[in-house]
């Protein structure tokens, strides 16, 4: 019996988690995939329930699980809290040692026509984002009214381990890595380049190029077919992955996987808690559903079940059942129920 830790999120987060778990249940019904979910207090819910966005019970429960599913946290109610939901999010990534965050941009046939950008069908790249260091974690941090400080820090081993994740991934894809940095300004970026030059010879079948982050931001939209694996620092990966989400038409379809050295992986949509959509049955559940298929493949080696969900999703999109962010008129539950129905047809 696999153990899945569930962190259900704030604002629109729980609606997405409910949709994702309904699809997981339908897809695994009648199979030998046995699992139990346990929900832990986390983020804004952690603050509301026990006064802490990341209580110890949640860290312990996640560490003991086989995989963690997380739906986005945060929102207006928690702005200015002493310990914010976002601090809890950074904390769980650190506590589980999840240093590699994989964020794919894959424009399938069904999504190709929905993009505001031209000729994007077939675009397929992955952003490999360093997740537990850089400016989001650097010290000192000084919060002030007349002056404030954030510190960007990287050590060579931190850079090396994320580079190796990206290079190995490129070996299984199109053998092309782009390092995105700001080496014309930042010392940390120059360290990334120096470490890349040491690591790259271990992967002779992979071509490496470098792009400053400002130019990369433009090329992701103007020449998205140029990329295969982008490896980049925490802050740049956060920003560029939201930008890249424009290519398949919406943030609401992009999943992510966060991997560590050992212990459970964590799967979550890349976007936030969409407070503007809360309670309206409008949020796109596909980013959560796609996160769950990734979990089935990566943590449980169940490509068979993941493939069934993926094809059910494609059929539902091709039939035009989609939420407003993709230009449709369907609700969250319409999309979820349509996917469940497709899965039930397969199982029948
Ligand atoms: N992993 C996490 O838990 C993350 C949490 N956040 C937090 O989320 C809160 C809201 O942040 P925002 O800047 O508003 O970003 P957001 O990603 O929640 O929303 C940005 C825009 O995208 C739309 N959107 C996002 N997900 C969608 C979906 N599945 N379907 C349809 N539309 C969707 C929203 O409606 C909004 O218009 C903040 O407190 C932020 O700190 C932000 C990013 C990641
Ligand atoms: C909310 C932040 C802490 C992180 C973020 O935006 C992300 O991981 O995408
Ligand atoms: Mg983000």
Automatic annotation (TrEMBL):
Protein name: 3-isopropylmalate dehydrogenase
Keyword Nucleotide-binding part of the UniProt annotation: no
Subunit record text: Homodimer.
Reaction equation(s) it catalyzes: (2R,3S)-3-isopropylmalate + NAD(+) = 4-methyl-2-oxopentanoate + CO2 + NADH
Matching PROSITE patterns: IDH_IMDH
UniProt-listed InterPro entries: IsoCit/isopropylmalate_DH_CS, IsoPropMal-DH-like_dom, Isopropylmalate_DH
Cofactor note: Binds 1 Mg(2+) or Mn(2+) ion per subunit.
EC number: 1.1.1.85
SMART domains: Iso_dh
Cofactor(s) needed: Mg(2+); Mn(2+)
Function according to Swiss-Prot or TrEMBL: Catalyzes the oxidation of 3-carboxy-2-hydroxy-4-methylpentanoate (3-isopropylmalate) to 3-carboxy-4-methyl-2-oxopentanoate. The product decarboxylates to 4-methyl-2 oxopentanoate.
């Amino acid at each position: 019996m696999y153990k899945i830790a569930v962190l259900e999120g704030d604002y629109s987060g729980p609606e997405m988690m409910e949709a994702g778990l309904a699809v997981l249940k339908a897809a695994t019904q009648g199979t030998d995939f046995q699992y139990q979910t346990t929900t832990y207090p986390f983020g804004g819910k952690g603050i509301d329930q026990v006064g802490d966005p990341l209580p110890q019970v949640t860290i312990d429960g996640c560490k003991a699980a086989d995989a963690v599913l997380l739906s986005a946290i945060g929102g207006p109610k928690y702005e200015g809290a002493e310990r914010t939901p976002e601090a809890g999010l950074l904390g769980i990534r650190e506590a589980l040692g999840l240093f590699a965050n994989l964020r794919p941009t894959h424009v399938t046939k069904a999504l190709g026509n929905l993009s505001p950008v031209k000729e994007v069908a077939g675009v397929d790249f992955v952003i490999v984002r360093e997740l537990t260091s850089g400016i989001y974690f650097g010290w000192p941090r000084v919060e002030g009214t007349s002056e404030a400080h954030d510190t960007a820090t990287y050590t060579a081993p931190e850079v090396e381990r994320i580079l190796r994740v990206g290079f190995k991934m490129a070996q299984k894809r199109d053998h092309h890595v782009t390092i995105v940095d700001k080496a014309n300004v930042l010392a940390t970026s120059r360290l990334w380049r120096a470490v890349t030059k040491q690591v790259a010879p271990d992967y002779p079948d992979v071509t490496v190029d470098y792009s400053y982050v400002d130019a990369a931001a433009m090329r992701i939209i103007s020449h998205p077919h140029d990329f295969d694996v982008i490896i980049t620092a925490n802050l740049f990966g956060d920003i560029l992955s939201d930008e890249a989400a424009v290519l398949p038409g919406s943030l609401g379809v992009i999943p992510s996987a966060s991997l560590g050295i050992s212990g459970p992986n964590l799967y979550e949509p890349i976007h936030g808690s969409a407070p503007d959509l809360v309670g309206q049955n409008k949020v796109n559940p596909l980013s959560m559903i796609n996160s769950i298929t990734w979990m089935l493949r990566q943590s449980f080696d169940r490509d068979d079940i993941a493939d069934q969900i993926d094809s059910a999703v494609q059929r539902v999109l091709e039939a035009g059942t989609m939420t407003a962010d993709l230009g449709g008129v369907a609700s969250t539950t319409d999309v979820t129920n349509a996917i469940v129905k497709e899965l039930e047809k397969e199982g029948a």
